[in-house]
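Study the following:
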Amino acid sequence: MNLANKLTLLRVLLVPVFIILMIINSFWANILALFVFIGASITDYFDGVIARKKNMITTFGIFLDPLADKLLVTSAFISFVGIYTLNIPAWMVICIIAREFIITGLRSIAASKNVIIPANMAGKVKTTSQMIAIITILVILVINSILTKFYFITPYELLDFKGWQQILGVILIYAPYWLMLITTIFTLYSGISYLIIHKKIFIEQKN
């Protein structure tokens, strides 16, 4: 197994570690979850760079790399739903996961017809928005933990203050929802764009 594939496999192995930390949802667990996710995301960048520069592209890597990405991202979104302070509705995560299943199916059909579906701009925006949303929400969880552990106050109690404390409270309470809503919109748009652009794949060719 080459270095690129080892990095991809490491990302897969970090997924259950990340999930356990999110379930614990304590001060140190939230900090570690943030660093684990960032570390896993970094491996996503470097395994691709190494595979291309050193010609280490393998069938195993082609299969595992996108799978590792989806496992990491979906585990984060599902974990967020289980944390009530984030106020993230399940329907958003369901839409995101459904899009991934549908486009994966589209790529499978395309592959059976020897057609490769490249990533388009909408897909890249989707990926970027998801990463920004996840990391930002993890940072918010860390800030919430700091407020609870060291200042014995919740984001909702900050709303009773004036000035920057109140603004911070509003951000901590409402930012996760709006970040997820924007991410869901980008995700659904990218999925629809793929289906429209590659609709001919669904058309059966008559002999």
